[in-house]
Amino acid sequence: MNQITTLFKNFSWVTFSQIVSNVCAFIWTILIARYLGVTDYGILSFVISLVMIIGIGEDIGTTTYSIREISRNKNFTKKFLSNIVPIKWLLSIILLLLTIFALYLLNYDNLVILVAFILFLETIFLSFCSFLSGVFQAHENLKPSSIGSIIANLTLLFLTIVVVIFDLGLIAVAFSYAFVYLIYFLYLYKNIINDFGSFKYDFDFDFWRNTIFNSLPFGLTMIFYSIYFSIDVVMIQFLAGDYATGIYNSAYKVISVFTAFYVIYQYVIFPLMSKLYAEDSNLLKVSFEQSFKYSLLILLPLCIGVYFYSPYLINLIFSSEYASASPVMQILIWTVIFLFVNGVASSLLNSIGKEVSVTKTYLIAAVFNIVLNYLMIPIYSYNGAAMTTVLSEILILMLMMYSISKTDYNPDLSLLKSVIKLVICGIILFAVLYYINVSLWLAIPIGLVVYLLALFITKSYDDTDKYIIKELLNK
Questions:
Q1: Where in the chain are the domains?
Q2: For residues 355 and 40, what is the distance between their CA atoms, to the nearest angstrom?
Q3: Coil, strand, or helix at residue 20?
Q4: Confidence of residue 264 (pLDDT cuts 50, 70, 90)
Q5: Of the candidates 180, 173, 164, the residue with the CA atom closest to the CA atom of residue 21
């Protein structure tokens, strides 16, 4: 009962934070895309993707490793804080200098180099924010990081409006991102000191060596994941140009509104799974199976709705200039389901010490993604990149489930039955929306009623669902 209550409280905080963040992101994405235009927006998208990939090296998996270890033993908190912070500073400075030097050697113009420098500063602050948030995450207290995120996103929205009104240009957009995450970092740093006391930098090189060694599987997973998830934007820029990049990224930004809720689940469930691995393996298995089921149950109707009404959404958000992004969105929306269920699987594997399996999975996915993008983008442009992303997610699901099947947490046949029932519900909803062909605002209530009836008819709920609902209602 206590675990369910804690899970619900953390879920509520992160959900509220993500709702505010996504509303803000939705608005500033529209403002920036409309203000910069397709070509300049493509340049911004390219630089962001590039520095985010390189910026993974600022962490090398230390955040995920720290969360797992602190979740299991809270006494490690000060030790990790004292040592991980200086490690991050050292890695960040080295990577910043190497990135700017590499762009200079590749003959990028001064504007691109300056934007890259500013946005790399953003990734540095973001990396520290992720680690400090991870400390709170390990202590199952997501209130400070949630409030900090709200402050940061509201500030970025305000700065975006200022940039657009006063026509300050691309450089000002980049500065806004960096400044906001600096504020977020300072806020979290202050709360860390308030909750856990001040700490001094520690240069325990034995601890550094052990931590880096154990963090590498997580770090490599992050690198491969980022390559697989961001390389499409970089490759489109190289193979199809700035315009195609802007079209693809506009659809990608809308999809990211949904995938942002993936953060909610990861924040809440990973430390809980790590804790359950040490305390209750049966409950850990139940947690995995129910999370898999609920992810599909919630996201399936959302993806179907976006698929049918993507032209309307693109025109509403970005204007008719981005009309070509509609087919891209119709393809990319299916990645949302796979992203969540794959996240559930990777959280399980990481929590039980099978992080190497996750690393191998994303290595294979990254190679697959790069090769297929290289073949698909010259032929199908941004649509080819979207299809590649979906196929990569399907490959990841297959590999993840294969790895889980070799552990003690291989799901029961009941999970497969639940998945089949939910897919049937999705097919019913798809067929109804296809035949009624009504406006989005009318389709929402109709679709909700149809989906709930389908869930009832197929009996897609069980005793475990009833127990969880009962516990939450009692609280």
A1: 2-411, 412-475
A2: 39
A3: helix
A4: low
A5: 180
